[in-house]
Amino acid sequence: MDQQGSHQVRETVLAVSGMTCGGCANTVTRILSRIPGVVGAKVDFATGRATIEGEAPPAELIAAVEAAGYGAKDAGSDAQTGGSNGGD
Length: 88
Description:
Layout: E1 11-17, H1 22-33, E2 38-44, E3 49-54, H2 58-67, E4 71-74
Antiparallel strand pairs: 1-3, 1-4, 2-3
């Protein structure tokens, strides 16, 4: 087993809106990759989904994408989704 690290990496999937081309997907990938705790990010323009590996909180990932002018919401994470159930 050649895997590094002693704990599992969490996978978060976001639905990203507002992307109009592959360049937008590349921009979102770069934004997500620069967030502390992210070890990998892949954005698929065709499906509008971003898959992020690492320990960054989903809210932080969403905030970074939104700050860049795109929409984002949790599309179902590998880890727990929605620990507290009380939004607006």
